[in-house]
Structures are given as structure tokens and as C-alpha cells.
Amino acid sequence: MTRDRIEFVGAQRRPGDPLPTRLPQVAVVGRSNVGKSSLINALLGRKRLARVSKTPGRTREIHFYEVDERLCLVDLPGYGFASVPAEVRQRWTPLIESYLSTSPGLVGVVLLLDARRGPSQDDRGMIDQLARLGTPTLFALTKVDKLSRSERHRATRSIQETLELPGDQVVATSAVSGEGTETLWKSVVSAVEEAAS
Question: What is the pTM of this model?
Fold first, then answer.
């Protein structure tokens, strides 16, 4: 897949709103400020496709990006950030849960975890929800450029052991250096191809 043709095709603002795509979807989820928008831009080779903000909780709706008319990368609002007002979080939670549990085109999820921290309680809640739904999930450790090589290795192993994951289910990534983004992209494409076979 060349990623030559990438298009923002719309957003879902409320549970039950029609989805703007019929393509197979891979959703990107994670805590606020974990680097979702930056990683989406790096995966798709674009600088400003997904809007990046220093303020946690800027993404307040679900954004859909079609790639080469073959798959759709889906940017979900971040979860678990204390500075986001409670009423905003209360709107997001049903939106995220509704999308994850009812979208007929969802074939997989990439769950982002900050490489410098272990999984939070919110991360574990999301992991449990995805397991209950039976959604195939890849784990991307973000911001590994902020760690030394040995720290990256330790962080990756720690996540694998803590969450009892096979090695190929965890990818260390950096939106800054590009590390791991091609490996993660190939895994995204494989998830779509496996769902179609």
C-alpha cells in the first residue's frame, strides 16, 4: 500500500451517527497526550493530517482517514486525562464505547502506551474492554526517542510481561525519529488483509 492517496473523510460526533466510510477500519486509541495524532501523521507520512496539540483532550470526536481507498485509519479521542472537564469526558466515553462495540467495519485497534510509563488504570480498562469485544489489538509504545536503547528494550519487555503479550504484538515507535512506524504500518495492513481473507 503506497499511502499516496490519503483523505480525511469525516468525523463522528455522537454515538449512532452514520460512519463516513465503508472501508475496513483500524482504530488508534490511547490516553490523552500519548501521541496519537503525531503517530498517525508519522504512519501516513504527513506532517499535519491529524491535528497535534500540546493541550490534552483536543480531539473530541472520532476522525476517519481513508488510505488508498483500501482501509480507514480512525483517530479516537484520548481517555483518562484529569484536566479534561468531566462533562466532556462523559460525552466521549459513550462515543468511544459505541464505536468500538458497534462499528461493522472495525477490524483491529492500535492501543498506544507511553514507553516511559507502565499501563495506567485507564489503559487497563481499555485493554479489558477490547478483550471482552474480541477486537484484535496491537500495542504501540510511543515516544521511545526519549529513552536510551537499553531503556527501550526494558520498556518493551516490561509491557510484554505485564500484559502477557507475544513479542510481535508490541511495537516500539517514535513519531519524531520514525522508529517502528513502518513495522507498525505493515501490522495495520496485515490486520486488514487477514480480516478480508
Answer: 0.91
